[in-house]
Design goal:
Elements (H helix, E strand, L loop, with lengths): L1 H4 L7 E4 L19 E4 L6 H15 L7 E4 L9 H11 L5 E7 L4 E4 L5 E5 L5 E10 H10 L8 H7 L5 E4 L10 H14 L3
Parallel strand pairs: 1-2, 4-8
Antiparallel strand pairs: 3-7, 4-7, 5-6
Helix pairs in contact: 2-4, 4-5
C-alpha cells in the first residue's frame, strides 16, 4: 500500500476487501488518507472483486474512460517504487496496457493425474505474469463484464479474451506471489535486506 500511496504517478488507491473482512480496522491507515479509499465489496472471484471495485470507485469518484487502472495483488507485497514506475512509464502511451512479468527460467513438465511426466514443455516465449496489471478503465470494465462467467486468474486474461495483446514489461523475480509458508519467510528476508543501510 505504501508503494502505491507514496508514488507521485498514482492519483488514488482503492482497496477492495471482503464485506466481512475483520482485519482492516485493526490498523492505523491515516498516513495514507489523502489517496486511500476502502471498498468492502469483494466478490467470490478475483474478476468479480476487481469489477465490483471499479464500479464502487466510479460511484464515488470521477473516472474517465481513458484513465489508467492498475490492479495489484495483496499477496505481492514486495513491489518497489522502481518497478511500479517502470510499468507506468513503459505503458504510458500503449494502446492496450500490460503487466509486469518474468521470463520462465525453469524447465516445465506437464503431468498426468498420477503425477508422472507426460511431456516437457518448451519455455521459449513463456512468461510468469505478475502484478500490477495496467489497463484503461473502460477497456478493463468491458473485459471483466465480458468474462463474468469464465474462470480467469488475472486481468490480462480478460483483456486477451477481447482479442487484445497486453504488453509484457520485464521485471525481477522478487515481486513474487506469497502462496506457501516458505514464500512468507523468503519475503521477510528480502524486506530485511532492503531495510539494511
Amino acid at each position: 500500500i505504501r508503494t502505491f500511496c507514496e508514488s507521485s504517478q498514482i492519483k488514488r488507491v482503492f482497496i477492495v476487501l471482503s464485506p466481512q473482512d475483520p482485519e482492516w480496522k485493526k490498523y492505523d491507515w491515516s498516513a495514507f488518507s489523502d489517496k486511500l479509499s476502502v471498498f468492502h465489496c469483494g466478490g467470490e472471484t478475483r474478476a468479480e472483486s476487481v469489477l465490483n471495485g471499479l464500479n464502487a470507485a466510479a460511484g464515488r469518484f470521477a473516472i474517465e474512460s481513458s484513465d489508467w487502472i492498475l490492479v495489484h495483488d495483496a499477496a505481492r507485497p514486495l513491489l518497489t517504487q522502481s518497478q511500479l514506475g517502470q510499468l507506468i512509464d513503459e505503458l504510458a502511451d500503449d494502446a492496450v496496457g500490460g503487466l509486469l512479468a518474468v521470463p520462465v527460467a525453469d524447465t516445465l513438465k506437464r503431468s498426468g493425474p498420477d503425477a508422472r511426466v507426460l511431456q516437457t514443455e518448451p519455455r521459449e516465449n513463456l512468461w510468469q505474469a505478475q502484478t500490477p496489471q495496467m489497463f484503461r478503465y473502460e477497456m478493463l470494465l468491458q473485459a471483466l463484464n465480458n468474462v463474468a462467467e469464465l474462470s480467469i486468474t488475472d486481468d490480462a486474461s480478460a483483456i486477451e479474451a477481447m482479442g487484445y495483446h497486453p504488453k509484457l514489461v520485464h521485471n525481477k523475480s522478487d515481486n513474487f506471489k506469497i502462496t506457501y509458508p516458505q514464500d512468507l519467510a523468503l519475503a521477510e528476508l528480502i524486506m530485511q535486506q532492503r531495510n539494511q543501510p
